# Entry
Amino acid sequence: MMFKSVFKNNEIEFLCAEEDYGVIPTPFPSSKHIPDWFKALPPRLGDQGFQTSTIKRCMPFLDSMLMGYIIPLAADVQITSNDNCSGITYKSNFYRPMIENHIKEQVTSEKSPNPLDPKPPIKFMNYWMFKTPPGYSLLFLPPLNRPDPRFTCFSGTVDYPYYEQEYVNFPFTFNQPNFAGIIPAGTPLVQVIPIKKDDLLPKHRSRSFTENEIKSTHLMRTIRDFVHESLYKDKLHKKLPK
# Structure
């Protein structure tokens, strides 16, 4: 198994085995996975005024979908579930395993049952490794604001350099009862977002607003409501790097 790299310090690189390259679907920017229902939404509901904006104009909602990259399913998987998803069978014709089992005792107990019970945890196998500049961690989570009704992958954070030297697989539960069908190759499994733990804020405190903070909030709301409706989008929003 050989890995090839042309790594640069301002990018994330996805690496796979030579025999898999060109065979398994390639990770892609999360911005390429915008759901059709979102694209079809108009920015406003007809001509009914300022207060009828749709979520199409909500930059926080959109930004969460644009961040990072999507890791797709490597190959077709046929799945069958029973009436409460406690029993899952699967098979694939791919030359590598596509799913592996866990046991439900790994995520639940009789003393404090997991809300996912009786769904057993199972695991999608991933055949991409990741290369980043030193100091990054990779946050893996279900594609934000784009839930798949069939399954939900667990969230997890993996630190440098483990993800450069070993595959990171994706535990999940299957959610759709009485399902019998194929999850096709290329189906988005997780969204991966590079983060730096050192840049997270480790301390916290709580307090009430100061008088100046109340005035500042009132001013912003006044400008937004009476002067510039798209204040956040046009003046305060920071675009993601390209």
Summary: The chain has a mean pLDDT of 90. Residues 13-199 form a domain with the Deoxyuridine 5'-Triphosphate Nucleotidohydrolase; Chain A fold (CATH 2.70.40). DSSP finds five helices and 14 strands in the chain.
